[in-house]
Amino acid sequence: MKMAATIYDVAKKAGVSTATVSRVINKLGNVRQETKAKVEEAMEQLNFTPNALAVSFATNKSNIIGLVTTLESERNISNEMVNNFYFTELFRGINTVLKRRNYDLLIINESLDNTQYYDGLIQNKRIDGLVVSTQLHNTAQFKKLVRQKLPLAYIGKIPNFNQGLSVYARYYKYTDEILGYLNDKGFERVLFISYRQKQDLIKMWDQLKYDNHTKMDIEYLDLYEAHQNGGLVEKIKDIYQDGNYPRAIFTDELNNVQIIISVLNNLGLQVPKDVSIVSVEHIHGMGNNYYPKITNVYVPVYDMGVAVANLLIDFIEQNQQEYNKQIILESILIERESVKKG
Question: Residue 289 gets which letter from DSSP?
Answer without folding.
Answer: G
